[in-house]
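REQUEST FORM: STRUCTURE PREDICTION
Request ID: SP-0412
Submitted by: Lab K.M.
Chain count: 1
Length (residues): 656
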Amino acid sequence: MSSLASCIFLFLFSFLTTIFPATAESPYFVHHLCRNTTRYSPNSIYSTNLKTLWSSLSSANASYSSGFQNATAGQAPDTVTGLFLCRGDVSPKVCRGCVSLSVKDIEAKCPNQREATIYYDECMLRYSDQDVSSNLTFADAFLMYNDYKTAPKDVDLFEKLASTTMMEAAFEAANSSRYFCTRKAKWIDFKDLFVLVQCTPDLTRDDCLFCLLQSINGLNFESIGSRLLSPSCNSRYELYKFYNETEVNTTILPPPPLASSTTPRPNAGKGGNSNVLAIAILVAIIMALLLSIAGYCFLAKRKKKTSDNAPTFYGDDITTVDSLQLDYRTIQTATNDYSENNKIGQGGFGEVYKGTFLNGTEVAVKRLSKSSGQGETEFKNEVVVVAKLQHRNLVRLMGFSLEREERILVYEYVPNKSLDYFLFDPTKKGQLSWTRRYKIIEGIARGMLYLHQDSRLTIIHRDLKASNILLDADMNPKIAGFGMARIFGMDQTQENTNRIVGTYGYMSPEYVIHGQFSMKSDVYSFGVLVLEIITGRKNSSFYERDGAHNLVTYAWRLWTNKSELDLVDPVIVDTCQMSEVVRCIHIGRLCVQEDPIERPTFSTILMMLISNNVILPVPQQPGFVTQTRPKKDLPDSNQSTMTKSGIWSVGDASGH
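STATUS: Completed
RESULT:
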C-alpha cells in the first residue's frame, strides 16, 4: 500500500503542477556540483564576502530582465566571484524567484564550499574563489537523458535532424545579442523536435560558439531527449515543448502556461473554497485513472533510474591507467595462446588477434612485436591517451599488459576490420555505398572534433589514415592508432619536433618540412582521407598520373579543369547523391590547402557536412612535399623518408 500511496502522491503532485504551473518560488531542481576542493570557515572573511555576493545577485536591482548578472566581492585572497544565468524564455519574475531559491539551496547543498554550481530548469547559479567572469569552461559538464531506454525511430535520421537543427541554433545564438536560441523541426508521426541552446553573455562570440558545439557534440542522440549542462553554456532537445514559446516569439501554438508575471495564483480566503473544490475534483479524476497511475509509476521509476545513473560527461571518475592493467595469462587464454586461427590482422607495429574473455566479452588484442617502430614511449602514450577518451567514434581501450617483456593493448572488438580493408579492395568496396561512405566521413569528423575540442584533453592524432579507421557491425567508424598522438596544453596551438613520424601521403607539408604539427595537421590528413573515400583509391596510386604527385594534386587538376566528378569511385557514381559528393570534394580540398590557417577546424567541417546552409569558401591551391617512395612502395609504411626540399604548389608541379 505504501508503494501505491507514493505513486498516488507523485501523480497528484504532477497533476497539480500541471494545473497550477510552477511559480517563481518553485523552480525545478536539476543538478548541483560541490567541487570539494577547499572549504571556508563559517565566520571567515570569505564567508562574509560570499554573503555580500549573494545579496548582490539576489537583490531587487539585479539584472533579472536580461537574465544574467555577474559580481565580485572582497579582496584577494578572499575574493569571491559569481554569476547567475536564467533561461532565455522565462520572465523576470521567474528569474528572480529561481535565483533567490538558488542562493538558499546552494548553501544547503554545498555548505562551506569555496566553489559550487547549481542548476534548475529555469536558472543556473555559480560561485568560486577563482575569477569565473568571461572565462569559458566546459569542466564538470553534466549529461542527462530523457527516457534513456527509448530510442527514436530511425536513430540515424533522427540524429542528423537533431544535430543539424542544434548546430544551426548554435550559430544563430552566437550571433545574437542574448546568446540564446530556440528552434523546432518536423519529425515523423506528426511530432515536432524542439531545441534550445544558450551561453552566458560574458563570453566572446567565438567562445560561445565553441562551447555550444562542444555541448551539442556531447549529447546522446540515441535518446528521445537529452540535455548537457555546463557552467558556460547548455543545450537541450526534446520531442515535446519544454520552453515558453511565447517568450521567444515563435510562431507555433503556446504550450501550457509556465510561470510568468501574468500567471494567476490561488488566493487565500474566498479562493480557498475554490481550491478545495479543485482538489476534490482532482482526487475524483485520480480515482478514475488508476491505470494511468500505474503507468506513471512505471515511467517515474525509469526516469529516476535514468537520472541517478546519468553520468557526468567530463567528471572526475575517468578510468585510471592503473585500473586497466590486465593479467598476461588472461589475455593469453582469451586468444587461445595467440593462435593463428584467432589472428585478424597484421600492422606495422605487430599482430592483432581476436580474443574472448571468460565472461564472453570479445576483444581485439594488439600484440606489439619487439622489432616494431612503436617503442616503450609510444606504447605508454597510447595507453595514457586512449584511457582518457570516451566517444562513440573512438575505439575504446579495455586494458593492457607489460608482463614478460610483452607490450599488449586490448581494445573493444570491432568486427568489420578497418576502412582500408573495404575501400581499397576491388571486390569489397561495393559494400561501401555512398550513404555509408558519407556516414563514415561524418563519424570521423565527430571523433576528431572530440579529440581537438570536446574532450578534457586537446589531442593531436598525427596518424589519421584509412587503416586507423575501424568499422563496427553497423559500419560506423571508430578512430584508432593513437601511438603517435600528442596531448596539448590548454593554450597550446602547435608544437615543433625533430622526429617526423606518420604515414606517407597523409602528413601535412608544414609538418614534414618544418616539424610543426597542430590541429590543422590532422585536418590535412582528414582531407586526404576524404578524397580517398570518394575515389576508393589510395593516395599513392595517383603518383605521376597526368603529372600529379598524389591524390591531392590530382584532385586539384580535375577541379581546375572542371572535371572533378572524374574523382568519384565508379562503384558508386551511378547511385550516389551527387550534390553531397561534390560538397565533400570541396571540403576535402579546403582541408588540404597549403596554408594551415586557411584550413577549417573540425567544428566548421562538421557544420559544413550536416548543414547545406553553410556557404563553402573557395579553396586555395594545396601544397605537397617532394617525398621519396617508401620501401616496397607501401603507402601505409611508417618508414617513409622525406626530402625536405620545400613545399611545392600545384602550379610548380606542372613542370616537374
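NOTES: Confidence is low (pLDDT under 50) at residues 1-25, 249-276, 293-320, 625-656.
Reviewed by: T.R.
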